[in-house]
Amino acid sequence: MEGKEQLIFTFYCPKVPKVKGYRKYQRPTLPTNQHPSASMPPQRLQQHVDQTHTYIRMFCGSLCGFSLLMLICVSPLNWVQFLVINNGLELYAGLWISCNHELCWNHTPKPPYYLQYSRALFLISVLTILVALGWLFRSCLPRRGRMTPNLDLKVSMLSFISASCLLLCLILFLAQVHWHSRDAMESALLWTYHINWGSDFLYMFAGIISFLNHITSRSPPLDQNVTAVPIDKSRLGIGPVTTVSPAEDAGSGSQTESTSEKEKKLSSTEL
Predict the structure, then answer these.
(1) Could you tell me if 94 and 78 are in contact, meaning their C-beta atoms sit under 8 angstroms apart?
(2) What share of the chain is helix, strand, coil (3-state, %, to 5)?
(3) What 3-state class would DSSP assign to 196?
(4) Residues 124-138: what's their mean pLDDT?
(5) Is residue 82 exposed (0-12), middle (13-18) or buried (19+ Cβ within 10 Å)?
């Protein structure tokens, strides 16, 4: 028997595209989401989202509470200093304090009633922010009662209302000061008056954050049972995919059979 046939093994080495000047080239792969939340279950992810909204509500409540505390602390203090031009006498007054002088105001209502309107708006501002804080505090309690619907939107509206009332209060108080100091006195606003402007800014900021929290919380919750609808595409990715119903498929099959029979008859007649 002649020598055994030599077996030749060939190994197929596919050509891999190379990048000039880059030796560690790897074949491109599909992008993958490597964020930690990608592998998180939908229930746990939704829980984190709800917890974030709760923290934002607590932050808005902290801003409103701090602003309210500042207002309560400075409201019984003097807001303005008057200086009598003739004798250099210094007088002090506030929203709820009168200076007990004939040139200054007292607690008796007098036109144009700037001081009375300012006090009423201050009380409205305090009451509205107390309602908002009550709703926020109730929502933070663990499983007690039902949560107020559209809480973030309501807190935002109350914050804007409180800020608007406080703004009008400060403007009317300033008009009251100019009304009494136009002839014989000079006025200078104290730091307690300017703190109220800071509280008004915090009310507005809390209202904006609460409104944004309401917009983001309106997104539909994540559902684990939602399945993706498959989309039919052509194999080469060129042209649309046509879907044929069974009835149309049967009709087209019968038409092809009839045409084939006619062709056979014609060929037999020609022969």
Answers:
(1) yes
(2) 55, 5, 40
(3) helix
(4) 93
(5) buried
Q: Tell me, what amino acid is at 115?
A: L
* Residues 204 and 99 sit within 8 Å (Cβ to Cβ): no
* Beta carbons of 200 and 163 less than 8 angstroms apart: yes
| Dmax (CA) of the chain | 141
In whole angstroms, what is the distance from residue 197 CA to residue 92 CA?
20
* CB neighbour list of residue 232: distance below 8 Å, 6 or more residues apart: 241, 243
pLDDT band, very low/low/confident/very high, at 237 (cuts 50, 70, 90): very low
Backbone angles phi, psi at 72, to 5 degrees: -65, -35
- Angle among Cα 238, 244, 247 to the nearest 5 degrees reads 170
CA-closest candidate to residue 186, choices 126, 103, 108, 63: 103
Residue written as token pair 């507005």: 204
Q: How far is residue 168's CA from residue 163's CA, in Å, rounded to a whole number?
A: 9
Token pair of 58 as six digits: 């607590």
Residues 6+ apart with CB under 8 A from 53: 152, 213, 216, 217
> Would you place residue 158 in the very low, low, confident or very high pLDDT band (cuts 50, 70, 90)?
very high
- Assess contact for 186 and 82: CB atoms under 8 A: yes
Domain ranges in the chain are 57-217
Rounded Cα gap, residues 187 and 90, in angstroms: 10
The pLDDT, as a whole number, for residue 124 is: 97
For 20-32, letters b (16+ CB in 10 Å) and e give eeeeeeeeeeeee
| CATH tag, 57-217 | 1.20.140.150
Q: At 94, list the tokens.
A: 């506030």
Amino acid at 259: T
Residue in the block written with tokens 């008009």: 175
